[in-house]
Structures are given as structure tokens and as C-alpha cells.
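Entry for the shared binder. Reason: the reviewer on the internal report wants the predicted structure included alongside the sequence.
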Amino acid sequence: VIAIEKDHRIAAILKSMIAGSQLSNVTIIENDILKVNVNEIAGQAGHPLVVMGNLPYNISSQVLIQLIQNRKAVSRAILMFQKELAERITSDPGVKDYGRITVMLKYCAAVSTLATIKSHLFFPKPKVDSAVVEIRFKTYLPWPADDEVFLSRVIQASFGKRRKTLKNALSSSSLEISGQLAEQALA
């Protein structure tokens, strides 16, 4: 078991608890989750990781993108998110919450909500409810992209200007394609 904790005070408490319990299979890494090399940890473990955590809500989307990019090193993740983000990443097409992160995640994973946790169950009490979400990364993609970096840019451009038509959103994005090419690609 590997625990990643950025706060040195909490890491010290965790290390003390682990030593007191004489657990030899738990390692605490004092680092920012966004700076941890997931592939390296999985390589040392010799198998894909199961990631579990209560993420700081302000970096949840960044952690999700990091997990998507390193999904070959992660079989699944069980994470607690702010309820609104959980609703976005589990939403279906045609719903207002459906967006870039939803598409990117559903391209490579099955996503489901396991539980909703009301704010009054925490101390100190946050202003928002939370939800626990399970993400199971696919080992096989039925329609894999030839270039996932480009796919990510197309998805970002598609959702970048929601009030425009898809053709206009793509042609006015950083993709540097004409309206005619965007229309041909969509056809």
C-alpha cells in the first residue's frame, strides 16, 4: 500500500500510526499527487495500481487528467469528488453537465457513482456534498484514436465554445482548421 500525502504534518501522523501498528506493507510518499510518477510506482509494484483517495477538490480535474494519461499503470480508481464534479464526469450526452472531462474519461473508462456523502458528515463541515466515484479503465478500446493528444485537443475545442455550432467551435479553435475542413470531417 502506498499513500501519497503532501501535508508534512499529516504524513508524520500517518507514519507514526503505521509504525505503531507494525504494518510493513504501507509506504508513505510525501509529495504532491500531481508530481508523482504513477508509471514508476506501478513499475515498482509489478502490476497496475488501484488508486483510492479523497482528493483536494481544487485539483480533482487535474488528477483525473493525469490518471487518464497514465491509465496503463492504473486498473481502477475510487475517488471522492465534490458532488458537482462527480455529476459532470458521470453524466450522459445531451445533458448540460456533459463536457470535455466526461468525454475524455468515458473514452477510456467505465465510470459510476458509488455513494453520495452529505456535507454534515465531515468535520469541519464543507459547504458542498461529496460523491465517491469508481473509474474502471478499459484494457481494450473498441475504437482507439491514432493520436490521443490530438483527440484531446479536438475534444477541448469541441467544448471550448458551447454556444457555437460544433463546426464553428472547431474552426475557431487552436486546431487551425478551416470551417470547410471542419464541416467535411463532421460529415
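Summary line for the report: The mean pLDDT is 91.
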